[in-house]
Every structure is written in structure tokens, then in C-alpha cells.
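S2.1 Query sequence (Small integral membrane protein 22)
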Amino acid sequence: MALSRKSLEQELSDTAHQVLGKLRSHQFFQSQWDTGAFIIFLVFLGVVLLLLLLVFIHCCCSGCCDRHSSRSQKKHSWGVDNLALEP
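Output C-alpha cells follow.
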């Protein structure tokens, strides 16, 4: 059941007016649900930023830490090597 173009425009307009009304009245969180949703959004944003920071650190540190654990040094190999997986 797709919305028609006019009803979609009307819904977006109503949402924009509602958001602008909250901004004008300086009452961003009118209920506890609004506050909870904002806190959940901030936690999600924090986790995403933390993961991006960890990826950035891993990419920067992989050049300096890679020489200690290279694939060519296999002194303590256990089991059978699957040579089909080697590049």
C-alpha cells in the first residue's frame, strides 16, 4: 500500500512543522520516550564511533606490529597445512 505523492508530501510537511515547532518552543523532549530514544541514539552513535576508532588504530598499527607475526615464520605449526588456502 504505497502512499500517494500528495499524502507523502503532506506527511513530510507535518513532520517538518512538528520538528520546527519543538525547536521554537525549546522543548526538545516532551516525554520520557523522546528522552529514551535520544539516549539510545547517542549510545548507538558512540558505539559506531568507537568501532571506527578501533579500525583506524588497527590500520595504523598494522604496519608497525606486522613484522613480529609474519606468516612466513611457521616454527610451531600444528596439524596439516592446507596449501590450497595459501596465496
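The chain has a mean pLDDT of 81. Residues 36-62 form one domain.
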